[in-house]
Amino acid sequence: MSERDNIFVRIKEALTLQAPARHGHGLPTIEEQRRVMPPVGQTEAELFELFAKNVTDLRATFKRVKDLSEVAAELRALRDAEKWQRVATHRGAIAESQARELALPLMVVEENSEKHELEQCDVGITECDALVAQTGTVLVTSRTAGGRALTCLPPHHVVLARREQMVPDLPAAMQLVQQKFGDKYPSMISFITGASRTGDIERILVLGAHGPKQLTIICCDA
Amino acid sequence: MTVTLFVPCFVDLLYPQVAISAVRLFERLGHQVVVPEGPACCGQPSFNTGYWGNECRDLALQAMRTMRDAEAIVILSGSCGAMMKVFYQELFAKTEHEALTREFAPRVWEFSSFLVNKLGVTDVGARFPHKVTFHDGCHGLRELHNKRPPRELLAKVQGLELIEMGAAETCCGFGGTFSVKFPAISTAMAEVKCASALDTQAEYVVSCDSSCLMQIQGMADRQRKPIKTLHLAEVLVQT
Amino acid sequence: MSSPAAQFKADAKRMTADLRHRATIQTAMGKYEVVRDQRKRWFQDWEGARTLAARTKYEAVNGLDAHLTQFTQKLEARGTKVHWASTGPQACEIILGILKAKNAKVVVKSKSMTSEEIHLNGALEQAGVEVVESDLGEFIVQLRGEPPYHLVFPAMHLTRDEIKDVFEKKLHDAPSNDPEELTMVARRQLRRKYIQADVGITGANYAIAETGMIAITENEGNARLTAALPKTMITLMGIEKILPRYEDLALFLPMLAVMGTGQALTCYNTMYGGPRQSDEADGPEEFHVVLLDNRRTLVLADVEQRDALGCIRCGACLNVCPVYRNVGGHTYGTVYGGPIGSVITPRLRDLQDWKHLSYASSLCGACTETCPVGIDIHHHLLRNRRNASAPKTGKPSWWQCQLFKIYGVIAARPGLWRLITKLGRFTQRFHGLVKGTALDPAQAWTKTRDLPPIARQSFREWWKEQGAHE
Fold first, then answer.
1. Quick check: C468 pLDDT over 60?
2. Which class is domain B2-118?
3. Going by DSSP bridges, is the β-strand pair A137-141/A130-132 parallel, antiparallel, or unpaired?
4. Do C251 and A33 touch (CB under 8 A)?
5. pTM for the predicted model, two decimal places
6. How high is the pLDDT of residue C213?
7. Which of B9, B174, C137, C235 could disulfide-link B41, Cβ–Cβ 3.0 to 4.6 Å?
């Protein structure tokens, strides 16, 4: 008998006795979840307002722009203000073209996954799968945002999002993941809520513990 | 109504004025009070120590049988109240006496809950012009859910000013034998409680549990802190 | 080598006398309470959320065999290697086997209390592997050679100066005592290790049966990097971490954050389902999940206490516990401390050795009131006391039995009670002679608190005097 078998024998034996359901039983429906969780607005304007407020509270930056030329302008402004020298990105249609327009030494992670080099980049520019208004969260995956390290190693993470990617709440985000990928999930799915942080020293908030110190989300309407 | 007053062991021996106040209060409100001869204890000490055998079952059965016909059993302690109302059912679960405990529980009332929830009374005609803070005994608060009744009663006492302490719901550290089995921890908890009470600058700390008050007063007296403690019954009987 | 109970008492005495330490904990907990309460109000119905979470964990735990089967099948279908360990040593052996096969010299770890439980770091170090804790709090206590102090905040007991000192001593890199600068030191040091490491070892907060993924909740990003950079990833988890469905995360991620740190969500909530896929830019080539029993099936078999397996390790019960706040995390002397730790340790280890944790509580119930998944914590402590004292399951103490029997007899008979009342009043006159000394039977109380006298007239004596009230 393998250890697996041993463990399952013990589990099955234990479960022959029924435990009291002190708080009731039955998996909650999404409606039940929504009734207890924080409320979100109904209209698109309300969702964007809520998202913007949450991101600001998280000390990250959110910019909503009209079209791709404005996205480019925002990126140029950041490049100049922060004096970027090396940029990392992935093979996303928008991310890669925008990154190239910055005319800086560029690392595309599908072509080059040298960790040391990624470490030298000042910024990682990626796309995302969704924005979650309820919590100010950005949803990325290893398939759609250039693997695992790109959204976590460079000190500044810039997300290029599209207006229609806004979803109201976490239940909606979970549904989106399941619908978008069916059973063929990427190996990593990450919900990013603000820049990396820690409170481990005297409970004092410090940004940029191991992940990015800065998170900027640029959302394009067109 | 005939009020059957169950007097906890420590109230009987150490704080009889608490029970005497309750008797006078109920008589003032026009009720008859009876006090059963025994038992003198609800059985909680051995129960809480993990001895659930005859050492506590006999006392519990005696209590339930003696007060079988009592219309309303009022207990001057949240912890004894919880023992009778909640834990007797656990003690006798899956035994021949389970039904007895279920029939017994609804007739048991903690003192403040009895006044407010059973008699529907919040104004007992009391007058106590002092600054007071209230300590929530853990059993009364979390087993019997008696947060509101004491405060509703105190709100109607003439001249009384209630100031809530930050640590009102924090355990005072008595916990029965815990207070002597782990005296260092119990003492630390009492220190936290007293500090919070002193912060309110209230003259009196009031509670529905004399055991908690024994802990708080004992700590305060040893440290020579100006805290005076009173059971709720002692406040409500004042006119 | 004193018993765990004796050690606990000694440590509790020392820690409660350390007023500076008590103040540190109270301050930290005070800050936490403010944000936690704000975040609870953010929910429309926090108590309703607790009920839904309790129901979810009930289904998870009571259908554990079906859920584990689905979980591992889905993982394996995606190329994950699944291992099963009945005991801690077996789990260590499995992990060492993987490291050996990979010729691993450097391992980077993200936070895992389960790995503490099986003393994994010690086993790895003995085999000549360098183990680096990447969570800042764990990194700090590892440098100090201490166990973690708290489930969520391993270095809660330390001041910035103490942290600066250990950085200076062990890393020779401590520019100042400023928390931000100290954090940057750790960031610098650890960056090298992430890139150097052959293997990354993580824990798991949740295991999603429906989709075959583990989920990790963190703020720092160290688990993200541990799972991204090394070529091999190993996740160690207890079998009870199961959540049935992916959508259950919508409730559990925020509830863990609210209770753990007072946040809406932690910075990174990440699900991992397998090794790197062919169309992915990076990621580990091998992904191993090690499932640990280590007597969790014993907790499962106890229908009264089975709900304890629903614990999501948020630390909320530790934070509200007045005992924890006064003695601190190290005093418990075992991996899982605080209220939930006191419940499960007698099962995970030994009842008689660890029952004292169930007695070192006033049973105030604040833990049960706060637990986001509705575990009946303080009542389980009471049940542990019963189990430890019952003739069949425990070791009843003869003299305590006698004491309670005698007391029971006296309390049952009004005549005897009257007698004892008089006797007590008489002997108390002499108490003053021995009060506070070693001869004082009430010394445990009178050492720090005054004792009230037995009343000149007990209530029952007064009642009798009044005559029958008809």
1. no
2. alpha beta
3. antiparallel
4. yes
5. 0.95
6. 98
7. B9
